[in-house]
Amino acid sequence: MTPEGRAAGSRVGIPSWRPNMIQTLFGPPPEPTVLERFKEAASKTRDNLAGQIDDLLQGKKEIDADLLDELEMMLIGADIGVRTTGEILDDVREKLSRDQLRDVEELKTHIARHLMEILSGAKTEKAAAPPIPEVIMVVGVNGTGKTTTIGRLAHRLGREHKKVVLCAADTYRAAAAEQLDIWGQRTSSDVIKQKPGSDPSAVLFDALQAAKARQADCVIIDTAGRMHTKSNLMSELEKMTRTAGRLVPGAPHQVLLVLDAVTGQNGLEQARKFTASAAVTGIVLTKLDGTAKGGIVVAIARELGLPICYVGVGEKAEDLMPFNASAFVHSLLES
Ligand SMILES: Nc1nc2c(ncn2[C@@H]2O[C@H](COP(=O)(O)OP(=O)(O)OP(=O)(O)O)[C@@H](O)[C@H]2O)c(=O)[nH]1
Ligand SMILES: [Mg+2]
Fold first, then answer.
1. This prediction's pTM
2. Are 45 and 293 in contact (CB under 8 A)?
3. Helix H or strand E segment including 218
4. For residue 136, which of 316, 280, 233 has the smallest C-alpha distance?
5. Tens digits of per-residue pLDDT, 55-86?
6. Among 286, 288, 309, which residue has the most ligand 1 atoms within 8 Å of its CB, making it the best to mutate?
């Protein structure tokens, strides 16, 4: 019996010991829904937050001051942020004083609504049809998951039959271009690279020329990991941005900052610095599967007003999901 079989069987409520026969009769198991995938990805945060909230609220009818204090600590513990947590609690207290919150179930619904408002408030406007070629620059500190994100994005675009060019502008390490090459092969995307140590803007120049000549739909630029505190490396991003704009009007059309969910609140400071140098347009939050502090998503939307475009939920090609605020909030609060 395969683990896949077990999962498939249990999901549709069918005994798990005959998955192959079930598949033969009824075809492959249904794809998990967006909510199911978010629940799986945010399971650590959910076990932490929803589990704690459920324990706290279990058997309680009344919402008292002690309960609210504990709730406050739980929300902060999940990295939702001190400011946002304070706002939620102020709001709850006000509603209580007006008799607008009667029981613990209403309290939970109220928190969910508040989180949804924050997540839906972040800017999300997107051009109806992307320009051709659409130029997407991917930035972030070391090891956050930039290259893996690029591979997974190329995989998504490939499934939409888009022609993708990957630009190996991380020229600091030879291994970086090799890593991108592997994703290029996996996703049938062209990879444009130069020898290690080359000027990243020169590689970008080549990649954009190639993309135009080959009539590619999209160019995704892999950049070297850099500390947001190193001003020379940050100005290199500014130079790349200027180069892109000279070759393709309006490029880069998207600048995605990749943040590692595990680093929590530290990501906020990175985001502020990268936004200043590289005009970040959206966030990719990776490794959501590896943290109990997924509430950082809320802090980012609240503090930076930047949309969360995608979340990384694993290391495989299909483990990048467009962010869905409603599914995310439900996955956090529903145990
Ligand atoms: N579990 C999990 N691992 C991830 C995710 N995204 C990336 N990783 C892993 O994180 C590690 C670093 O990923 P890279 O894509 O190489 O990170 P990078 O930002 O390109 O790194 P540098 O180029 O060195 O700055 C790899 O082992 C990835 O497999 C994710 O969403 N979930
Ligand atoms: Mg990389």
1. 0.84
2. yes
3. strand 218-223
4. 280
5. 887 777 778 888 889 889 888 888 888 888 99
6. 286
